Each structure stands twice: as C-alpha cells, then as structure tokens.
## 1
Amino acid sequence: MNQITTKQKLLYVDDEILNLYLFREYFRNEFEVIVAQSGQEAIEELAENQDVKFVISDMRMPKMNGLEFITKAQEIRPNITYCILTGYDLTPDIEKAIGEKKVARYFSKPFDPTEISLFLSAGNGE
C-alpha cells in the first residue's frame, strides 16, 4: 500500500500552553496541527505554511486578540476558514465578524472536539 494521505493543516492559536497541547492531542489523528502562542507567532506560521486550510484562534489573548489576529491574517491569507474559540459569551464583535463572513464559526471553551471535527469535516469539500 503506497498511498500517502496528507492531512490538512490546521493552525490553532492560544496564549495558554496547556490548551495548545490539549488541542494538538485531540486533533493529531485528523489534522497536521500547527500551534502558535500569539497572534504575531500565528502570522509567522501562516507565512511559512502556505497550505493551512483552517485557523482556530482563542479570542482573549494579550497584545492582539483573536479578531485582530484574524483581520491581519486575512490580509495575507484570505482563503482560509477562520474560527474563534472563547471561554466567554458571544460578543457583539464576534457576531459582527460572523455576519461579515470574516469568521466562519465560534466555539465555546472548554472546546468540544466532536463539534469542531464535525464543522471542519463539513468544510473539507468547499
């Protein structure tokens, strides 16, 4: 069997190291998970990894929040599916970003791996 299946790349951005570790563990069988601890680090990862298909970013991070990061990231990589992950309620800013199609979906913390997997797998055929 010489069939090589390449996993799609998913970038997860969170300032909490434990969350990065847990996310990578949950999704390592489905995706090639790249992690970044800040919006700036995530921008650098996107520049290095041209084939990232999905980005999931924490909302509340120091220096650059999730929506600020996504706005900057979309300037260089507009054809990625971007999602927000938050431990807080849905804010008017997040609702507006979803309405403007900047953000495809928001997920609540603690994240539900099944909910995220179902959403991302539905997006694979786009």
## 2
Amino acid sequence: MKTRNPVGVWIGLPLITLGIYHLVWYYKIHAEMAQLDRRRVVPVAGPMLVLLLLGWTFVAPLVSYFGTGRRIANSQRSAGIPVTCSPGVGLLLMFVFGLGTLYYQSELNKITASYGATPVGAQVNLFA
C-alpha cells in the first residue's frame, strides 16, 4: 500500500484535476487492499464504477462508501493492527465537506505505518 497525504487526497488533487483524482484514488485504494490480503475478495473496479455511473442515485455511493469503510477495517485487521476505522463515521463525514476521504486515507496510512511493526511470525487474529 502507498502512504498518501490525506489533505492532498481530500482537497488538493481533486481540485486540480476537477474531481477525476477522487475516482483514481478510489480505484487505487481498492486495488491496494486486494493486494494486501489475497485471501479476501476485494472488488477493485466495481466501487469506482458505482461512483462514476450511479453517483446520481444518491443511495449507491453511500452504500459504496460504507463498504469501503468495512474493507479498510478488514485490511487493518489483516495487517495485525487495532481496527480504528468505522464505516459509519466515514459515511457521516462524507456529508461534511467530503471529509470521509480524509478520514479513510488517514486510516489507510495507519496500515502502511504498521509495516515492520508486527514481529515476524506473530499470530494475527483475522476474526476479531
């Protein structure tokens, strides 16, 4: 996974690219979560296509953002760190200036920061 600047993901690059970077970021985080733990099935293109093609429906993007929060929480569990990502908080923050992206990227950065923090051979509880 890649460490990204949460503020850049939230406002910087989407502003420069007129919103296109948000779709690119959404695709990339799903691809990275799929690579993190190959035992889990993580949809890669589907969530981005929901935003692109069904964004006008209002309900479909909300379901997609909530599912992304659950996937981030599962990725944190797979990385062996405490699960701090709440899909509900992320979804609610999407209504406050789109702060959900900032929140989700901050939670993803915790996973990349934990690389090397888990001792080799340590047992990771995947069903906590």
## 3
Amino acid sequence: MSVLVRRAVAADAGELARLRQLSLTCPAVPWTRPRAAPDGPWVKECQEAIEAMLRDQETAAAFVVDAEPGRLAACAMGLLLPRLPGPGSGKPFNGDISTVATDPECRRRGYARAVVTALMDWMTVSGCKRISLASSPEGEPLYASLGFAYDDPRMSWQAR
C-alpha cells in the first residue's frame, strides 16, 4: 500500500499546530498514559508561526498525509538552517526536523516514515548534508531505520 504524501500549505497550519500539540506530551504519572500538551495561547502562536514558515518555500517545509478533507493524519515539519562551510562539507544548509506527529487514530500505517522520508528528500535536494532531530523513545526505531544515529545530545542523519 502506498501512502499519498503532499507538501503542506499555509491553510494546513491549524491542523499542523494540532498535531504538534499532540506530539508535545506532558509527563504522566506512572499509572497513566502521557497526554497532549495543554491548550493555551501558545497553540495560536504556533499556528501563526507555522503559517509564516510555510510561506517561505525555500527554507521551510512540512509534508503531510491527509486523514480526510480538513484533517491531517500525520506530518513532518523542518527547516533548512544556513551553515558556514567547513572541512566536512561545503553544502549551504543543515536540516532540522522540528516536529513529526501522527494522530493516535492513524498510527501503525507507515505515515510517519512516509512524511519523514519526503522531508529528508526535500532537505537533501535543497543542499542539506546533515539533518538532525530530537526523538522520543517511541520514534527512535523509525529514525534509526532511516540512518539516523546519536550525535549527543541529538540524533542526526548524514548524507554519504
């Protein structure tokens, strides 16, 4: 089964903020499951920041899978960060994957892999040699299978 991935547009910002909120879990007491970060002004601020980010087609992108019209199943958002050339690379950018999230009702379908792979492809084509992210324990197997390795304190992927 192939997964239909598309590049997000500014109109997706509300849903992207919702998925980001789900991905930012609050610590749970031992007998409960972690829960999504609480509502607050930050959610609207996040939506506005995502809208602005998605207008900048050159250094920011999000890739998504739709659950149904107007509702996203999964997303991966990232930025290209300018870098100075060094001995290891003259490529102009490092990539930062800032959010990977899947709606709990849509998990275990390969959506996270599909959106992360699309984002990595975009970053690489855009001149990125190194991509980094912060991972939850649940995400580590996916990122490791895509070639990410620990580069304390973050995981990173490096083009060969």
